[in-house]
Amino acid sequence: MFKYTIKRLIMLLPVLFGVSVIVFIVMRVFASDPTSIILGQHATTEQIANLREELGLNQPLYMQYIDFLKGILHGNLGNSLITKTSVTQELLSRFPATVELAIVSIILASIVGITVGVISAVKQNSIIDYISMVLSLLGVSMPIFWLGLMLIVLFSVNMGLLPPAGRIQIGMEPAHITGLYLLDSLVTGNMEAFKSSLSHIILPAVALASYSTAIIARMTRSTMLEVIRQDYIRTARAKGVFENVIILGHALRNALIPIITVIGLQLGSLLGGAVLTETVFAWPGVGSYTIESILKSDYPVVQGAVMMLAVIFVLVNLLVDLLYSQLDPRIKYS
């Protein structure tokens, strides 16, 4: 397993190199000139030229890319063109919010998706199966930003049950312990803070989890249908084993590998793809910060955010692969 892990980490390098090239070129070709945004519409040509020289944007593109790579190798993603602050520090300060939202969403999606998938497989071709599959199809097809807006209108505007946006912690500093407000409030025993954090995260977590829930439910159903038709399941039933033990102890356990794969991929996607959800709910994470930076053509921030999320996505997939041997001892790594 150690050799396999090292091999996968080495394979990470060309992937990151490709990602760095793509995001660098896309920002330079399709994004607006940040100097016009910083100086405004009435800036003179001389002012723009001076600012471009100050920011290093007048250098050839290959020189700018080399400087970008040098910064990555030294753990420095540069400074924001707009705020002049360190990109690394800004991303790290917002990353806990993205992690918290992604973890709550994937937990919700896994619990609901696996439950619905198992019930649909056991009750195949029943009304429950048809309803769950229709809901799964809606979950896959429904735009997350639209669902988020509908949840805000229903539960915040009309019913007034939940806050529409933000991430507020009562009686606790934002950076307290880990920056994960739900966890921090539980560790400190601050139940008022926990209720506040929970109320703010429910709507964005439900919106973000909708697509993943549908994918996990469909995968669970198809995998369970394949497993429960196996000979050892029929043998267990013939021996008089309780149905719940057969389904949960035998069938579901042997169906977990593809399910875990989907959950891992969805977690990586949630960490890197919560952009629209964070924007709709004003969630102060990496996604909303990246959107703001794209609109301002803040090259270093966008480049740094994409690189960080690419690394996280690949590492999550690696972790999922390593979990396979724990679920199925027959799997060996080479």
From TrEMBL:
Provide one Gene Ontology biological process annotation: transmembrane transport
Keyword Cell membrane set for record: yes
| Tree of life domain | Bacteria
Query: For the ABC transmembrane type-1 domain, which residue ranges apply?
Result: 95-324
Query: What is the protein named?
Result: Dipeptide transport system permease protein DppB
Enumerate the UniProt keywords alphabetically: Cell membrane, Membrane, Transmembrane, Transmembrane helix, Transport
Residue ranges spanning the membrane: these are 12-31, 101-122, 134-157, 201-220, 301-324
Transmembrane: is it a keyword of this entry?
A: yes
Coiled-coil stretches are none
Where the protein is mainly located, per its record?
membrane
Per the record, the similarity remark reads: Belongs to the binding-protein-dependent transport system permease family.
**Pfam families the UniProt entry points to:** BPD_transp_1 (PF00528), BPD_transp_1_N (PF19300)
- GO-annotated cellular components: plasma membrane
InterPro entries assigned to the protein according to its UniProt record, in alphabetical order: BPD_transp_1_N, MetI-like, MetI-like_sf
Q: What membrane topology term does the record carry?
A: Multi-pass membrane protein
Which species is this UniProt entry from? Clostridium homopropionicum DSM 5847
> Where is the protein situated, by its record's location annotation?
Cell membrane
